[in-house]
Design brief:
Length: 240
Amino acid sequence: MAITTYSELQTAVANWLDRSGDAAFTARVPEFIALGESRLNRLLRLRVMQADTPLTGTIGLRTLALPTDFVEPIRLQLTTFGDFVRLAAQDASTMRYRMTNGTPQAWAVNGANIDVDCPCDQAHTFTFHYRKSFALSDTATTNWLLSNHPDVYLFAALVESGLFTEDASYLTGVHQRLDLAIEEILHKEARSESLAILEVDPALGVRALFRHVMIRNQKSEIRNRKRFPISDLRVLTSDF
């Protein structure tokens, strides 16, 4: 069966474990999905997970609430004056805080909030760029990850069900499938990022491709002929 919605995912988990008629088990399936989803949110760093949200400061305060779907920060920009001004990211434990109201210049994630380095002297506006979580529910019935990689959702939920079913051998096999699916997703993401980097400057892209082909051919020649000393490997690091 197709797995395109939260409901279909729940059915698939029960079917794969042959527990579709077990009311006690099916009642726990949403928990297995949520636990598996938490694992995926920790492991996956995908561009599709990046989001922007506007934030507004309060006069006299230096805290901004993090979005509810926050996983990891990327950048904070001040937009009060019409331009996007990137603030310096700091560690909350070492950031130098100013006591007087002013325009923030730095920020840090601190617990459930963003701290800026001084209390706001006006209702400053910001754009927060961050990595958001995947979160299926009865109201959010699908998302990009489920639509494009339903297997990783299924395997993640099945792994979390292992402690409930107490089937160690089955858990081991499914865990291997999950690890492979995650690896394939991250590999695909890396290829896309590499392509984006090459397209920034076509000249750099051509040079990088030429270097890659030359290195591959030289490695192959050295390996096949098997008569060059190891010092000949120096050609592989020359600059083209």
